[in-house]
Amino acid sequence: MDTIDLDIVPLRDLNARLHDPAEVARITDWRITNSKGRHNIAVGLDAPVTVSIAGHVGYYCAGMNEQATVEVHGNAGVGLAENMMSGRVVVHGNASQAAGATAHGGLLVIHGDAAGRCGISLKGADIVVKGSVGHMTAFMAQAGRLVVCGDAGDGLGDSLYEAVIYVAGSVHGLGADCVEQPMEDADRAAVAELLATAGIDDIDPSRFRRYGSARELYTFKIENVGAY
Amino acid sequence: MCGIVGLFLKDPARHAALGALFAPMLVEMTERGPDSAGIAVYGDPAPAGGRHVVLVHPTPGFDWAAVGEGLSARAGGLVGVTVRDTHAVMTLPAVDWAPLAAWLAQAHPDVAVVSVGERLAIFKEVGPPARVLDRFGIADMAGSHAIGHTRMATESAVTTAGCHPFNTGPDLCLVHNGSLSNHNRLRAWLRRHVGVPFATDNDSEVAAAYLTWRLSEGDTLGAALQAALRDLDGFYTFCVGTRDGFAVLRDPIACKPAVLAETDDWVAMASEYRALAGLPGVETARVWEPEPATVYTWSLN
Questions:
Q1: With an 8 Å Cβ cutoff, is A97 touching chain B?
Q2: Is the ipTM of this complex over 0.95?
Q3: pTM for the full predicted model
Q4: Domains of chain A (ranges plus CATH)?
């Protein structure tokens, strides 16, 4: 375990150490103090280390994450775990806009609320939000799963591709081409598995509804070929 | 980029500590706007229907005696004069400000009016936010609410006049993070149809002037902001103060950041949560990001 105090160690030095193969082979548990909402903490990791941050983080925390587990004991700013490839990012407070944007893989868990555009352009990662999500969540999401235990804001799943959204609470409004779909056994199993992986055991998987793409917006239709 | 912060104290017992609570919030937003900073403080009302007029002269150490005597002679005496760095707060009795403003512009063209209001006083300068706060002694100020801005200029010059907050009518002020795309035509329209005078070419001043016009037409602050959603084009997060009110508005796309926190004692907004992280009781506050195209208002009454 190595503890880094960001009031003493420059953030660039911390990130450089976390990018250094020798350092992450030597130390697998990192603890960061005095994060104080600084931007770009623990970005671009590519090693199976655990980074625990005691406090709030600013923009793009754990962006581009691969393999690492990053845990934030506070709130997170814009672009949390943006473009994550693998690994696990957990926030115990709220997350600001565009959490998990374009993430390809791995698991993002938000124990509080996520603001607007959560999972925008999602490309394969899983996101579990214990609270609610804001407007335009999962906009143009292509692949991956989003589980929302609370409510969803307006424009949910607008212009959705093949990502799947599960919501336990109310949906303020669905975006273009996003529709409610039957919740089948496989969906209930998927939700139960994601909740268990996220460590959330106080909500019944049968409460969730499934939302997906109606495939009316993005699919090329052969009968329209003459129009091109 | 720009950073904005606002603090509205519901509990009068906290009013004495307004500046002390507010100053660290503004400092926290330094990286979003290191060019310049401005602070609007809603403090004690000027006595007997009078008003506080905050003036600025570009020369530090400027001798305000001639300005004070000139205003005093025309207002039938001054209630008070407080000089803070480049600014002077002239507290006037209940007289019409317009002829005094006309005299001031003619007799002291280097002096600019920063704010006019019964409770409002604005202080703004070029420089890092911590230094601006220190120069004006903001941390020692009392009041019910305060609004501040840290500026990274995009639309107009880095000057004292270009700093936010903008005051365009009695006790109204506005800070803005974003950029308006129809400010030029709206400014021309407000000039022509309403006769609003503009002090700068800044887009945010147009938003403030628009709200002043709506309020002068009888709108509530909430109704004025609803109308702004229709008439202002661009991207914005606004924080607005009036004599007794406090409001936050984001445009319908809401890509500019904003976070609100509320307890029984206070309401606070900021561009980033870290500006709120030091407030007393924030751990148990309701924290949320304001919805797009949704007007949030609070009032002292």
A1: yes
A2: no
A3: 0.93
A4: 2-218 (2.160.20.60)
